[in-house]
Amino acid sequence: MAVRASGWCGVGALGAAAMLIGCAQADYGADIHNKTAAPVFAQIMVKAHGQSEPAVLGASKRLGPGDRAFVGSVRAADRAGMAYMVVDNLPSQSKSVTVDLAPGMNFYEVFDDGGVIRVIPKP
């Protein structure tokens, strides 16, 4: 019996180690420059552990016209699609813009293109 219990403990330890290896984490953030004539709202949404999870609000910031601000830092899995940014200029009728974030710092400029928001990576 003692050998069998020890064997199950080893299997449990291997399973826990495998779960830790597959869960690499990264920090995500965005440096945003609002080049529109209206305030914009930037939110970083996070799926902390997997694609099947619903996204939750990780960080948010209101940027006035001409403002530049840092949004974040949030932590999520380091796989594609785990963190994304939503930029909107409520209460206007234009649609919000969604941008996938890469791990680390991301740099964007927000423009108004005839009433439609454009989010462009900063050169």
In spatial order, strands of the major sheet run 4-1-7-8
Q: In what range is the share of β-strand residues? A: over 45%
SSE series: HEEEEEEEE
Overall mean pLDDT: 83
The largest sheet, given as strand count, sense and whether it forms a barrel, is: 4 strands, mixed
Number of strands: 8
State the shape: elongated
Helix-residue proportion:
10-25%
> Which spans have pLDDT < 50 for at least 5 consecutive residues?
none
Structural class by helix and strand composition: alpha+beta
The number of helical elements comes to 1
Would you kindly provide a written description of the structure presented here, covering whatever features stand out?
The chain is α+β, with helices and mostly antiparallel strands and 123 residues long. Helix content is 16%, strand content 50%. It has 1 helix and 8 strands. It has one helix spanning 2-21; strands at residues 25-34, 40-46, 56-63, 68-77, 83-88, 97-100, 104-113, 116-121. The strands form 2 sheets. Strands 4-1-7-8 form a 4-stranded mixed beta sheet, with no helix packed on it. A hairpin with an 8-residue loop joins strand 5 (83-88) and strand 6.
